[in-house]
Amino acid sequence: MLDFMDHVQNAFYEASHWNLDNSYGALNATAKALLDFRTPRGLRLQISSLAAPNFATSYTIGSVGVVDGSVSYLYSSLPLLRPFKSADLDLHHVIRGYRHLQELRRPDEAWWWEVWHCGKRIDRRDTLLYGRIFLPRSTLEALYLRRLSPTRQLKISAVSDSTLNNGGTILALLQNDVGKYSTEYMYSTDSALMGVRGLYNFGPDPRVGSTSPVAAHEITEPVQGRFSAGAELYYGLLNKSGGISTGLRFTTLPNHTGFPYTMTLTLNPLMGNLSSTYAVKAGPNLALCSRFDFNFYSYESELQLGCELWRRRRNTDVEWAVKRLRPDWKRPTVAPDDDVSGILKARVDQDWRIGLLWEGRIKELLFTLGASLDLKRREQIFRTVGVELQYSS
Amino acid sequence: MAFNFNWSPLIADTSRAREMLTIALNKSPKPPIIVDDIIVTELNLGSTPPELEILEIGDLAEDRFRGIFKMSYTGDAFLTLKTKVQANPLNTLLSTKPDFASPQPLAAASGLTIPLQITLSDIRLSGFVILVFSKQKGLTLVFRNDPLESLKVSSTFDSIPFVRDYLQKEIEGQLRVLFMEDLPAIIHRLSLRLWSEEYQELETEQRLDGSKDTTAPIDPLSTPPQDAVDAFGNPLDEDQIAALSLDPASEVHASFSQKNILRLAALSESQRTLSLFTPSIREAVFRAWANNSDRADSGSNTPALTLSSLSRIQSTFGSIKSNTSSVASGSTGNDTQATRPSLVSAYSGPAGLSLSANRSRTHPMRKRKKRVVNLRKDGTESSGVSTDATNTPFPSTNVSETASVIPEEREGEEEPTTPPRSPTKAAGGGLRFEGKHGSLDVGEPGRVVEKAAPGGLLPAAPLLEEAPKLSKSKHTQKSQSGVFENESKRSRPPLSSNRLRTAQQTTSPLLRSLSFDKVSSISSGSKIPLSPRSSEDGTASTGGILEQAWMLKMAHEIARKVQEEKEKEAVGQDPDTPTRRPRPRPQTSKSAGMLPRGGLWTDEEVDAPPAYVA
User: Where does the source fall among the domains of life (chain B) (predicted)?
Assistant: First the structure.
């Protein structure tokens, strides 16, 4: 389950029309959500609130052997209007699962953002500031996010921690997204790491799609999927080491008539690592994913399977009545996922390491139960067990 | 004396050592680049054993050993490790960084684990090793400093200088930890296994022996209550004394009260266990307090040492202090003990300041392990330079004798409890020098005794009177000299009583080890005075060795008679204290008897007569 502050940041991206998925870093977001989910450890409580549309606070207290906690504040220049109360938020916003990509959206025109008043331009760039301090460790996280233009965003994140080299690290990330393609440039003070990422979407260019006349055959054949290719390159100036990878993705779009699915293939030519994922949303409540890693230098391979299951309450008393309802008759519901009793995520790999996650909402509390197991270690099957509770108002 | 280090069996089977090394290597947190367990695949100790130079031997017996070595190793041992490393530098880099500010690459950080084989060879070690061995507790080996001098790391990545340097650095660091922390534990465990499995029967036998040993020393102590005298005024004891006074022999030995014995036992126990608790013993002065007297002792002791037999006795006494359970046969045991001090002295004397510094370093360790005796030792040793200075005359003057004489001296310094030390030493530096010279000059033991005795005895008496505190260190005094008690009851008597008791307790096992010849020699002639005490203890303690015990008894008898005769004379001299009587008798008798004969032993007992006179 997403942290409250991550949720708020996502809301900021949405409000500022930034497409998080159109980035090489998010190429296999689906597989990551289904296979690499984090299992909680120990007990953790989070109380947070969006006091004003522009200001959010969050307090976390946890106990993993020792009690620790964090305090975080967030300021957004853009009012965030999404529901954040834990009682009525959309669970799809906080639980990452299969990412059903939408049609690429044409970027805003720059002049859309202009606000003039009395002959002067008074609009400001949308900005997000975020800070979080972890108390016993005295670790500070800070984030500065600024929408420089409708197609550009600057993100500077920093961590201050005495245990790190030089006492901390700063990462600056400049992102460009024009829909058809996106590029990212980054610099990290940690060993002076520089990086470039790019993603190219094959298919129609959203920028020209609307204006240029559409051929007849294109209309008859709507775009059902999208093919994307990307690459990344890193080089650390100080330690003279680098990394490179390329990736491909094919994913179905909402126009697709069958069940949605996503396939990715990433390759790290330097290290000889080949990774392919296949994720399918088998139904409104079920998503399955598999990943196969193979290294053609060391011949090591790894297989992971994962699934996500949304479990909904069945009210058998009124089931028959619901079936008889006219399909166009909508029942009023308090929250969009009011009937969701919980979401189960599970993963397993070829070494029988199992991760389980049970998330959901009880009354006004969001809960996450998780455990990771290692069936090969008989003496200690449960590696970690944890509970997280969130409340936000 | 020689040690035989058998290197070849170590080479033979290293599987167990490999296992333990593997465990040890995987115990500590590994750097992120190592992604798998480190497995020791090959371990060869090579054909060249390390060179060991014995710096000091603190304890030596058949079943135990404690010593300090200087080790240097330039052999051909090698060690091969296998593990897996992460070859992607980006992966290792990012694994240690917080996610929040990480670029979170998609696949550029994907791992590539490479099996890595590392061979460590050309290992150069040099350092100081402390080796403690006892059959029950196994072998403990500790490095006092970081022994790793250099080593050659060759691996699969030798062609890549960056990786090679990194590995070299990391491995050296790990090895240092290994040598300082893990290796001692491994060796200890190995030794325990060895002795528990293969030598279990042996061990049980030894335990039985050990129990005998322990009982043996108790016996002599238990007997004294029967004999019943506490020299320093426990009323119960006095009653007993009165009852037993008829028997002169008993008087000689029984200067211990049951209570005090128990306390002393507690004291020695507490010293052994490192506990800070020290039972308060009435009228007792601990060695740690009596530095001045110690020096004096060392000086005075020397004359006695010249006698071979005497030296043996002394050494045995000293060893008693160190609590060696003398399993060895009498002769060997004596020899070894005698040799021990010599080693020490040789080391400290000629080695100069650096060595002495070393030594002083080591002392704290020893201190912990040893009992009361050690405390004093440490004190003297720590001020090693000063003591050396006093000693120096001997070696310089009589170079030829140094080997035998010096060690003895050393012993005296280190272990003040040794019986031969006499009040004279304590009394003054001048006395001791005289004593030394006398002893040194005289090639033959008998002569030495004679010469030394008169010189030391006469001057000693006045000194004692003047400064009784100095003489505290001698245990023998108090039992011997009632006069002393009167003069300085508070300080001196406690010391002497304590020492005596400790000495007796400790000595008994050693005495056992004494061969017949020695016993007889002791009992005969000048040595007699000493012998009664020690011999009695020996008889009690020996238990198993009946013959020796019997011999000792006989010796005591003889000595007693001699003493009695002299006692009569002495009694006539000092009528003052009734309680004294039992004590004075032995002293006076001893001293009287001794003086004419001029035995070295007189040193101890000789003092008494002057006191009387005074």
Answer: Eukaryota
